[in-house]
Specification:
This protein has six helices and six strands. The chain is an alpha+beta fold.
């Protein structure tokens, strides 16, 4: 199979050669010439491509490029990239589970980016723009976050129903455990109150966290 390559000559110019491989060695079929300008190098590459088509009597699958159409990596600078395929895949999964119309785009985007790179809520907003080119205002998070608390039971019901239907999850045996989390303060409130602490911090306000999972470790309730 004929190919062409670009090589550097002893005089510092760039030459274009048509070759094929034989026993892991390059066998030169035709030397198209050498040059030190990009435009002429483009022309030599076009001639090489045309020579290969004529020699093999088989047209290329791709159209012959016009002069100047070749791109050189050194002429470009990578300024970033986006995970659009990942984003679209997770968004489709959210929709299949039945959560797409349940809440806002900000909520769904936070779920998506936390799968890719877990971080704090505000850091996640920055990552959403970095990875997906989607902008959200911090003020939007502060405005919406309190509303999301009421979604917990609906989300758990839909996720568990999806797991049962699509993956045949068995909920006949469940495991439940609790733990305590303390705060570095001595002032409690309606949520945080002093009491028994597994960390021996009974003088500091605590919250009690309970988790129920299936025998496979799948979260059923929090």
């Amino acid at each position: 199979m004929l190919k062409f390559r670009e090589v550097k000559t002893g005089s510092g110019k760039k030459a274009v050669q048509v070759y094929y491989l034989h026993n892991r060695k390059h066998v030169i079929v035709k030397h198209l010439g050498s040059t030190n300008t990009l435009d002429e190098l483009d022309n030599l590459k076009q001639k090489a491509q045309q020579f290969i088509e004529d020699y093999s009597n088989q047209a290329s699958l791709f159209p012959t490029l016009k002069s100047g159409a070749y791109s050189y990596l050194e002429q470009y600078e990578c300024v970033g990239f986006y995970y659009h395929f990942f984003y679209d895949t997770i968004q489709r999964l959210i929709s299949q589970i039945g959560l797409y119309d349940l809440t806002s785009n900000l909520f769904k985007d936070l779920v998506t980016v936390r799968i890719l790179e877990p971080a704090s809520k505000l850091r996640s907003i920055e990552l959403i723009e970095t990875y997906f080119s989607i902008q959200h205002r911090r003020q939007s998070y502060y405005k919406e976050a309190k509303k999301w608390l009421s979604l917990k039971n609906q989300v758990l019901e839909k996720v568990n129903a999806f797991a049962l239907k699509e993956y045949g999850f068995d909920y006949s045996l469940l495991f439940y455990d609790v733990t305590t989390l303390y705060f570095e303060t001595f002032e409690g409130d309606d949520l945080r109150k002093t009491g028994f602490s597994k960390d021996s911090k009974s003088q500091q306000p605590q919250i009690l966290v309970g988790l129920m999972v299936s025998k496979d470790g799948f979260s059923v309730g929090i």
